[in-house]
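hey can u check if this looks right to u? its 198 residues, i copy pasted from the old doc so theres a chance i mangled smth
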Amino acid sequence: MRARTLLPATLAAALLALAGCGDSQDPARADDAGSSPSAAPSSAQPPDDGGNDDGDSGGPAAEVPEALAFTGTTVGGDPFDAKTLAGKPVVLWFWAPWCTVCQGQAPETAEVAAEFEGRAHVLGVAGLDKRDAMQGFVTDTGVGAFPHLADETGDIWKKFEITEQSVYVILDKDGETVYEGVLPGGDGLAEKLSDVTG
């Protein structure tokens, strides 16, 4: 009889000891598990650190609008992820290397990019030609201070339903389109961007 009462008591003590050890480790595991979800956002933050030079570490990058859910390659051959633009207004300038209207827009677009640096992003999206011609346009027109994507396949143009060159698309900080159209010579671009930067 004693063995019957002693065995359950011994098992209960052993289980409590194990549970006690488990409790001291489980909170750490629970913390680890709890920090795993926050580790997931943390691991999502390193790409955002690429946009960290703007001071927007976790918040804006965590909420990338659908409009900025695209990647590309710059005319210089570097990878580019548009999510790094999240959290600020964005000007997308759709141009082609042989387009004389685009050449006329280049000086004003470069000026606007410099004027709004730190408050908004300007991104050129070149299409309808090859990367060498696009790189030549950037060099010849002096618009190399802001990034330009070589959209040789037209994927980004299709995403924004662009059917002709020299079109500007202005997105507010939430990724909503607030303007789309041609601005000859880039006239009015600064005013339109001022409206969304405050």
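The beta strands are 71-73, 79-81, 90-95, 121-126, 148-150, 167-171, 177-182.
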